[in-house]
């Protein structure tokens, strides 16, 4: 039986890439830098932010960018431009909880980038039990050991989990850890052909479609 549903944040639980593209270009403009193209943003999506920015804006002063980014990030959050979770996705989480499953987040974000999602007054309160991220895991996707802390702290076995994500790296990490993987293609950032079929249990076009898939898994 599937006891835990582990969910990626960006372009899985919420659609993030397009909003992040706008946000990062606003920061670049503030720094007097030309905008990046959507093509280069997509090609580096999923990398750590500062690593990616070296390719998105060659020659960028990363320290200045890192100092300014949180200001714009907080404004985007306050204005409801970022980390917007569609009502239908919240409804799907409610059904998972009603089914008796533990819902956990596993993301490549840092702790500060994910902390607001676990605030007591956030919509995810009562739906998501915990979040695992760069600051509380020793390893990071696509390393299968990224699940080590989650499995150790919950006591849930790999065969009792399913991971829902949007990237081939998500699939590789889950497969290497013995965890079944559902590819969520809703963002359009990636297509099913980008994934190794050996690592994919199922693919869905929208997040709520994970419900019948999970309920069908032994």
Quick gist of this model?
This protein is α/β, with parallel strands linked by helices and 218 residues long.
Architecture overview:
- The structure is a single chain.
- This protein is an alpha/beta fold.
- It has two domains: 4-15 and 83-216, HAD superfamily/HAD-like (Rossmann fold), CATH 3.40.50; 17-78, DNA polymerase, domain 1.
- It contains nine helices and six strands.
- The chain has a six-stranded parallel β-sheet, with helices on both faces.
- The radius of gyration is 17 Å and the shape is globular.
- The N and C termini lie close together (5 Å).
- The mean pLDDT is 96.
SSE topology sketch:
Blueprint: E1 4-7, H1 17-30, H2 38-43, H3 49-56, H4 62-78, H5 87-98, E2 102-106, H6 111-114, E3 130-132, H7 148-154, E4 161-165, H8 168-176, E5 180-184, E6 202-204, H9 210-216
Parallel strand pairs: 1-2, 1-4, 2-3, 4-5, 5-6
Helix pairs in contact: 1-4
